[in-house]
Write a structure and sequence with these properties.
By secondary structure, this protein is an alpha/beta fold. The chain contains 16 helices and 13 strands.
């Protein structure tokens, strides 16, 4: 097959999905909606087509290196302070749909030149919205966890753009049953199929599995110290402030416990939250973003993985934690409850309630039998529902069935007039 993917290639979720088809020998065109290195997907024909505002500041801004003097604030420093995840997202969602109109002609030309059998846009905003104006091959659109519950309802502009995007696809891909239901409410036609598969295809169990870890030695954490991991980075829909507030009594009660937060190193916002919570900085490790193998190492070293999201689909970090034997403490979101049953294979708490989060962390650090039961339950769940190879072979077969059913004729060669 010849397949075109329109995706944010900064995302390991999208890259993992696309790489499967490259490695299976399909001809792949990958159009990135954000700037990336040309080496991000070896074996694919890559093109860059920025669709909306750049993602700078999406993790809360950056800060000077430790010890670097801070003198007169620069415009960049002011911007870093202003550009919280919520503000950047609001600006992008306000202006994004209008900005897309200037990109549609170029996108159509990229598709026409490659002549794919199908196009897969791997998110509604803004890849799926852009794909809504394409002519030619059938289009698949993926729904990511916040597309409906958070972004679509933020403004009338985004609501209209979401409905228009759902009118186009031959198939919709959702990573949870909740979004499959919501898609119909947002206007996805009832006669068209919906595939429900984790957003990155599932868990590569050759990488994410229980076992030894080198994280402790790298961070100089004693072997007997339990580790609480927050894998979610800084997101507008994740209660990071609640997380750090809840930690204060936990770290007082468990003086050997440590906290590891990948993707937060250098963030002024994260530094401020740690300071405001009065946490011992020698026991809170704000780390850079980690690749898949290093994240697997972090999960294996950790007793608890905390995800206090208020909007979500099926978080890949949740599946990865479960595959590594790490106990999940998660926000009370319908899509997450499709995987976590409170008190059995994890603990579900209101993401905004620091007191209940504290109680859940205390229980997870004390109750060894709960941890062991959850490890067994979660290992079986991953094998049954989230095995990457099994899920991606299913998707490959669905792609092939879709291309076989595609009518070929003069309509495939018509171009929309975007001038």
């Amino acid at each position: 097959m010849r397949i075109t993917f329109l995706a944010d290639l900064r995302s390991p979720i999208a890259v993992q999905w696309i790489r499967f088809f490259v490695e299976r020998g399909h001809d792949v065109q990958a159009i990135s909606s954000y700037p990336v290195s040309g080496e991000v997907l070896a074996g694919a024909e890559t093109a860059l087509l920025p669709l909306v505002l750049a993602g700078a500041g999406r993790d809360g801004g950056s800060s000077p290196h430790a010890g670097e003097p801070v003198r007169r604030p620069s415009m960049q420093a002011y911007l870093a302070e202003w550009a919280t995840p919520r503000r950047v997202s609001a600006a992008r969602n306000l202006f994004g749909p209008a900005w897309l109109r200037t990109k549609r002609g170029r996108l159509q030309r990229l598709i026409d030149r490659y002549q794919p059998d199908l196009v897969h846009a791997m998110r509604i905003p803004f890849e799926g919205i852009a794909a809504g104006a394409l002519t030619g091959p059938p289009v698949i659109v993926s729904v990511w966890g916040i597309d409906f519950t958070l972004i679509a309802g933020q403004s009338r502009t985004m609501a209209r753009a979401t409905r228009r995007a759902l009118a186009k696809p031959a198939v919709l891909h959702c990573d949870c049953e909740r979004d499959a239901t919501l898609a119909r409410h947002w206007g996805f036609p009832g006669g068209r199929p919906i595939w429900v598969v984790p957003g990155n295809g599932g868990v590569d169990r050759s990488i994410f599995h229980p076992g030894p870890s080198k994280l402790r030695s790298r961070l100089q954490i004693p072997g007997q110290s339990p580790i609480i991991l927050n894998p979610r980075r800084l997101r507008e829909y994740v209660r990071t402030q609640t997380f750090f507030t809840a930690l204060a009594p936990v770290l007082r009660t468990f003086p050997q416990a440590h906290v590891v937060c990948p993707g937060m190193a250098g963030s002024r916002y994260a530094e401020r939250l740690v300071t405001d919570a009065g946490l011992d900085r020698t026991r809170v490790h704000l780390m850079p973003t980690l690749d898949h193998r290093l994240m697997a190492d972090a999960f294996r070293a950790s007793r608890v993985s905390v995800s206090l999201s208020e909007h979500d689909g099926t978080p890949n970090s949740l599946l990865e934690a479960m595959a590594c034997g790490t106990f999940p403490v998660v926000g009370d979101v319908a899509s997450v409850r499709e995987w976590v049953h409170d008190g059995t294979n994890g603990l579900v708490v209101p993401a905004q309630d620091a007191g209940l989060v504290t109680d859940a962390l205390m229980k997870a650090l004390r109750d060894e039998s709960l941890i062991e039961i959850a490890r067994k339950e979660n290992d079986q769940l991953i094998r049954d529902r989230a095995d990457y190879q099994q899920n991606m072979r299913y998707i490959e077969s669905q792609y092939e069935a879709l291309t076989r059913s595609r009518p070929v004729g003069p309509a495939d060669r018509k171009h929309a007039d975007f001038q």
